[in-house]
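Let's sit down with a protein and look at its sequence and fold side by side. Please make up or recall a protein chain and show it to me in full. Label the sequence line and the structure token line clearly, so we can match residues to local backbone shapes. Go ahead whenever you are ready, and we will take it from there.
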Amino acid sequence: MIPRIVDRAEILQTLKNRAGTYVPEWRFRVGSSEPGAVIASLFAEMHGQTLDRYNLLPKKYFTEFLKLLGVGRGSPKPSSGFVRFFTNGVDDVPANVPKATEVFASAEDKDVVFSTEYAIDATSAELSELFYADKNSIVELDINNVNTYFKAAGGDLQEHTFALSNNNVLNMSGNCAVNVRLRQKYVFPDSFAAVQLSDLINVVWSYLNGGELVKFDSVSNSNGVITLINRSGRSFEADEEGRISIYCNIHNGGGIDGSIILSEAALTVEPLSNFRAETLSFDSVALQNENGGYCFGRNPTEFDTFYIKSNAAFSKTGAEALCSLDIASVVTDYKESELPIEFKKRIIEKKHLTKTEPDEVFIDGVIWEYYNGLGWAHLAVTGDTNPFTAKESRRFDLRFTVPGDSGPVQVNAEEGFYIRARITHIENFLSTKPRRFLPFVKSVSCSFKYVDFRKAEYLSAVNNLETSQLENAQGVSDLGFEVYTPPVTDEAAMYLAFDRELSGQPLSLYFDIAGSGGGADGILIAEAIKRGKRTDIIRIIDGTLGLKRSGVILLYFNRPTVQTRLFGLERHWLKFSLNGAIGDCPRVVKRVFTNTVHALQYQKANEQTFSIGALNSSREFELFEKPVQNCDVDLINDTVTRWNRIESLTQAEASEEVYELDSERGLLRFGDGIFGKIPPEGEQNVRVSYTFGGGAIGNLPIGTVNSLLRSLPKISGVTNVTAMTGGTDALSQEMIELQGKNRFRHRFVPVSSRDFEEIVLEKFEKVSSVKCYTGRNTKGENAVGFVTLVAAVRDSDNPIEALCREIYAYLSERCECNLAASGRLNVIPALELKVNIELTLTLVNFDTAVETTLRVNNLLVSLIDRKHDSGGIGEILTASEILDAIQADSNVSAIERFFAEGIYTENGAAKYVAIDDFGTLPYVIIRSGTHTIQIKV
């Protein structure tokens, strides 16, 4: 590219060639002592010195020419990133962090200073919980993990369930119907809730059995009463707190507008048919209800007792109970032990042969009793009050109202609700000629019916993760209990809970976004939750484009937040919603930090002044600090005039008040009257305010910027939450020439794959490698006419998605217009694949096992990193490459076990792939992960 004039050897060769033409008889030999050769060599040496000086000019002219095209050494560029400030946490009043607050890190025995770009108010509040909510779902997210925003991602906690409890009423097993009467507060008719809550699609009524909720078989509504049918034969079981309840779960809002607030909740239950008594016993003798038994044994006596247990029927205080006893009569006749005849008599008269008539012995009187919690009390019964006379075999029906104080009692070591029959009188009990009528119970069945509804004793409700309870509800005349609260929002929204008051002008939140961030930009709306559903709209400056890219959101509070209850938590709440469709591009957030500011690698220098004098012909001044970043130059005479910076004075008119700056060397130059105006003479009349810094030294990993240059009130510390990247040194001469050649070719109008790659590498310092694929889409599939650029950054913690968007915006303005307009131009990040390897080795010499392990581990790291550092997008590592490299170690005898896998992130979730399948992933760039090496003994 740069022309070069010949050197001494070429001059001598030219003389030799021409000598043969002009003087054929002269045999010129280089190095000969012959006079002609000596003169020729002397000429070549003297002329060569002149040519050496001329050879310098083309390179200088070429360099200057490239400067005219905008290609030069340039100035060192500063690195940048986000730094987070920490408060001492003493109070809720935010601490002001001014603009240009200086923080630093130590690198290469030098302090690298960064300055913040804007002011914030630092809060002591910390993010404690995170929720996603919409009309149909609530999801609590783990703030320590990657989360998808504005989309339900499993773990739905949205629940609208209420429970009504009454142990006496609902102590039921078998087929039955539960009637529920709900009276609403305010203006709604009593039938309103019944109609809404009998919706078979969105409302589910259930009961607890076997530790899980079982759905009722049918639900109907009539005259404001909801009827729930259970035909499964299962019993209603109590929960862990001993309450028997029915549950109503409302899905998808149930089509219900507004809240449901009950003034009364009452219920009854009735069996669909009679049911068997649970146990029967005579005194301490248990009878089989299926097979029957003697109610009072084979020889009844007064005070003998017959017990009937039915938890379902006898616990229903106030209900009309029916007890049906199927009793058979068993008669045992009297047998005389001796005949009334005297055989010693000679004559036996007929009158002496009369037969003795036995006496009928039967149970003539019983009393019915129930247990009232203190003892057995009289039970008033109607119907067949004494079914035990055994004069006939049939079914006897006994009716009574279950007393209000009926309670459980233990009989024969079995607790439950009992009634009992106790014998008070047996007819002809003392007869010596008894004919006994014994009652034999075949079975006992029960039933009951409530005359009036019974109030629920306990109410509970869960709405939007908020649990409410009402104890002893039967004693409350007007419940005022909200059993259904509508979802907190109809839109997809994120709810951020903070443990302290939020305020600031502004307060900053940094969102670390993962993913491609495609789709249309959304407008982010921020609100502070007040009491109930009221909110305060917060003015924001959104540096994330609706959470599409990593950045800071600045929130300007008009008033501090107030603690309010939401999702069952007392917190200070922020609500974020997105005005715009998300589509197939979810917002995947890795981290959220408070008190975060963007910082650039520069430091404010002390102001310098210079004098313009007649003897200062060069009009060139050197600044103390370098490399120089921003620079303001003022000329002070009668007035203060600010002069403008220009890339080169050769581009300036004679009257322009401009200067040029060599940033790297800190040299400030003014014009000479031909190229740029000569500044007026004066004493200390040039005032220079500037900042300095920049260079590759500022590229630092996370957590290294951790010191304040000057202390701030209430601020206890600082750290960088992203890598500080983008710092570059001035270009070397070789890079200047290379960029110059490239620029001559593409002129920043990309046509070929090489053009795209070279333009990106030149214009975007943060890009470590880029590869252009023609005819392939973002999924790596063949697609005619598509151009896909895949980029990688030096630091994997740097948010590359935003950088890809910047690259796309730059290229779309310069490439062929139809390429971007038709959506065939794509810029995407390389798929970062961390490779983890597990090895089991057999060694030649076990004495050096530690050294061998370290050597093999370093070998694996360097092998993988070489692929990455060479810009190897799409270049995979094969198992054979790894195995060959390990086996080349002189101390490795054999590889007993080898396992390698790659880990990458897709939509916030970790994915694993075996090494044999690396080639199936498009646009991969590999990085070294964790390697485990074991030695087989």
Summary: The chain has a mean pLDDT of 85. The chain is about 15% helix and 40% strand. The CA atoms of residues 361 and 430 lie 9 Å apart.
